[in-house]
Every structure is written in C-alpha cells, then in structure tokens.
Amino acid sequence: MAETTTKKEETNGSVGTEEPTVKNEEKKKSWADEVEDDQDEATSSSAPAVTSQEEKSEPSEEVKEQLGELSLSEEPAPLNDPDDANIQAVTSGDTVYTSAVTFEELNLSEELLKGLYVEMGFSRPSKIQAVTLPMILTPPYKDLVAQAHNGSGKTTCFVLGMLSCVDPKKKIPQALCLCPTRELALQNRAVLQRMGKFTGITCMCAIPEESSSFVPIIKRPPVTDQVVIGTPGTIKKWLSTKKLVTRDIKILVFDEADHMLAEDGFKDDSERIIREIQRSSGGGCQVLLFSATFNELVKAFIPRVVRDANEIYVKKEELTLEKLKQYKVWCPDELAKIEVIRDRIFEFGQKVGQTIIFVRTRESTKMLQSALTKEGYECTAIQGALKQEDRDKIIQEFKDGFTKVLITTDLLARGFDQAQVNLVINYDLPIKYGTREPDCEVYLHRIGRAGRFGRKGAVFNLMSTEWDKKIMEKIENHFQHFIPEVPSWKNEEHFENALKEAGLL
Ligand SMILES: Nc1ncnc2c1ncn2[C@@H]1O[C@H](COP(=O)(O)OP(=O)(O)OP(=O)(O)O)[C@@H](O)[C@H]1O
Ligand SMILES: [Mg+2]
Fold first, then answer.
1. 38 in a domain, yes or no?
2. Confidence of residue 347 (pLDDT cuts 50, 70, 90)
3. How far is the CA of 152 from the centre of ligand 2 (A)?
4. Stated pTM of the model
5. Whose CA is closest to atom 25 on ligand 1?
6. How crowded is residue 55: how many other Cβ atoms within 10 Å of its Cβ?
7. Closest Cα partner for 405 from 424, 384, 388?
8. Which of 263, 287, 315 is the last residue of a domain?
9. Is 326 a domain residue?
10. Residue with CA nearest ligand 1 atom 16
11. Per-residue pLDDT reduced to its tens digit, 408-462
C-alpha cells in the first residue's frame, strides 16, 4: 500500500515518505508543482509572519572573510560564459587546485574526451567546469558546494565527476545523483549517457513509474548499473528494499541541492540518504552539492551534511544573467494578460525561438492552454497531475522542437535545459508556498530557462494586481536589479522594441 501512495505522489512532482500524514504535508509544500488551489489562500489570506531569507541573504562575515583568501593557483582564462566571471572559490585545506583551461588538463580518459568533443560538441570547459572539475577529480576528493549561474554547465561538472570515478568492470552502483523531479533525473541521465557514450558505463533512473509493464522494485534483481540517478522517494524505497547496494558508492551528487536540502523541499529524505551512504561506504564517499541558488538558511544547514568542503558561491546581486533582458508589463486584468501573450508577444516571439510560460497552478495551465489554442495558437501544457507518459511526450515534443510554446507550473522551473528557449513569460509571479512573499530563488530559476550558456533571451513578467507590483518590486530589490516596464500593454511597437533590445529581433 505504501508503495502505491508513494508512487502517486512522486508522479505529482513531489516525493512521498513512509507516514501517510507527513506525505500530504510534504506533497503540499513541494515547489515542484504542488502549489495548487491552496494558492488562492496565499493571495487572499492575511500575510503570515515573514521568516524568509531575503533580509538575511548577505554572506556572513566568515564567508566574506574566506572569499578574500582564494587559494586557486591561477585565475581561469576568460571563457565564453561571461556571466560566471565573478564566481569565487573557497578551498578547504592545503590542496592547491589549478583551474583547467582545456579538458585535456583534467586527466580525463580518452573515452570521456571523445564524449565531450565528439558527442557533446564542447570545445573547452566553462568557468564553473574549469574551477570545479580539478576539485572534484583531484585527491583527496573533498566534498564540494558549488553555486553557478543558470545555464552555465553545472551538469557537466557532476556528470564528469560520476563517470570518472566509476570502474566500468564492476557491475555495482558506484555513483548516485539525486534530483527534485523525474524530468530532471531523465534529463541528467540523457546527458550522462551521451557524455559517457564511449565508456561502456551504464545508468539507471530511480524514478516513479506507472506504465503497464512496470515491475515493482521488490520483484526485480538488485541494481547492477554503475550510475543511479533518481528522485528521493524512489531512491529511499530502493535503499530500504536493499535493491540499491551502496557499499561501493564513491560519489553522491545533489542537483538543485538547495531545494534538496530545504525544509520545504526534500531535507529529511536527503539527510537520511546521505547518512546511509556515508555509513555504508565507510565515510569514503564524496558529496557534491550543485545549484544556481543557495540562500542563507540552506547555507547554514550545509555543514551538517558535508564536512571540510570546498565551496564556490556567487553573490545574489550577480546571479541574474547579463544577456537576459527582463521586463514587467502592467495588465489591467487577466484577459489583458492573455491578450498581451497572444497579440503582442507571440506576434514576434514565435518567430524567434521557443517559449516557456510559467503559471502558478495546475488549473491555470489548462485554462491558459485552452484560451490560447482557441485562438489558433498552438501550445502544450505540462503539470504534475498528468500521466507520466503524457508528461514525457510533452517534454520530448518540446525538446525535439515540434512544439514551440510550453505552459508549465514550477515543475520545470529548475534545471530544464533547452538551448532554443529564448523567451520566458511569467503569467503568474512565483510566490513562496503559503505566504504572500515572492520566491526569489524560483524566479531566478524560472527565468534561467532562457539565455542558456550565454545565449540571448527575454523575460516578460505580467502584473495585474497591486500585490503583483509589490512582488516585482521585492524581486528587483532582492537581486538589486532594476526591471524596466513595457510602457503600454496595448502597444505592439513597445513589445517589438523590447524584443529588439533583447537582441531577439
Ligand atoms: N563546455 C561547454 N561548451 C559548450 N556548451 C556547454 C558546455 N557545458 C555545458 N554546455 C551546454 O550548456 C547548457 C546548459 O548546461 P546545464 O544544463 O548543465 O546548465 P546548469 O548550470 O545546470 O543550469 P541550471 O542551473 O539552469 O540547471 C547545456 O545545453 C549544455 O550542453
Ligand atoms: Mg542544472
């Protein structure tokens, strides 16, 4: 019974626990698509006490001090992702790391170099890759907390870390990666399989399944794939049924680590999994935490899960992507929002690439899709309550470029990588669950779906209430980044100018 319930919840983008009561709680709190009708409460109830981290997000004195003592032996060469020019590293202990200018300098195997050059088409490491890969691949293989901009190539850092530590001859799991959603787990596996194409290393996804051919883990043989990438609920189940053997796990990765360690994310599950793996591997497992955002609450918790770690952080004021032009648009009502998307933004936007539209609730995905398709604008919509096979199909069609506009809840706010996306529309602004406060981290991740790896992009934030205006203002203050307003929602030329300014027309 427990199995069925957990499966269902993970389907919704959240992860179950063993206690049914806790499960519902968890399900509600998840950023990934669980913000449903409850959001109405958030917009109508009186504001709860704000315990958010915005006021506290300056680095602590200790961190500031450490940032001054970089022990990287040389400055990485300038690379083609200027947005990461300001990442700063704090190395722990005496190990001196030289950041890599080429992939060759990393002592990667011939097979991995071939994967990077031939299969991925990469020519040189991005800044975050140049700085973190020596830390990940050099003994004593210290734990690492790494923050870098959205779209700057963090996946390659941990995928190379995992592929490099696997012995392809041993048919036992040696690397484990945890992700907040099944979509991200599948995407990360696809990257690993391409990058590792010439290594013979195999990878399995530990994600909920609901297909008719699905065989419960208890009836399956133990996992022999060398890399496992999955969501916390399924990983926990595989661990408790002893189907996922952890004694040879050498590297444990958390993608979107801040969410994986957040109270309203997967903190408890993540902590349990780390403890279990550290215990069974005799403490010899390297832990890597990657994300574009680490708020002060999460940062304060990190020492509990990693010790003596190398750290790389970016100041929040420097996190917005340079090449991404953000705008806000005042719309008098909801109908005007739809008109703006349809008759102004799409008028030009459809010519320039792919678009992601973020809404707050599942209901809104359906409402907006039907409003747009009724007028002849083709778009698809995804949210956690859809069947998994439908979710997979919608993602695949968008990745293949068959569909141009994708409406989504925050299910795809984090990690989703599609180079052709150069337009993001916030139909609803991101709000912290159960509050009237903006979710600045989610805002950053959402807009980071455009402008991947230094590409150009534009973001339109639609506001139709005074509260929306306040939310926008708070987001601007948080990142210390002024967002210009499109002067009139009715004027086509103003939108054309905005897109021209973003370099898209
Ligand atoms: N060295 C490189 N050269 C060229 N392209 C690269 C390189 N590294 C990564 N990329 C490409 O950059 C894009 C973004 O990479 P990735 O998804 O890893 O970003 P990310 O840092 O994880 O972003 P997010 O925080 O949004 O998850 C991908 O399409 C990837 O293929
Ligand atoms: Mg990522």
1. no
2. confident
3. 8
4. 0.86
5. 150
6. 10
7. 424
8. 315
9. yes
10. 153
11. 999 999 999 999 999 999 999 999 998 999 999 999 999 999 999 999 999 999 9
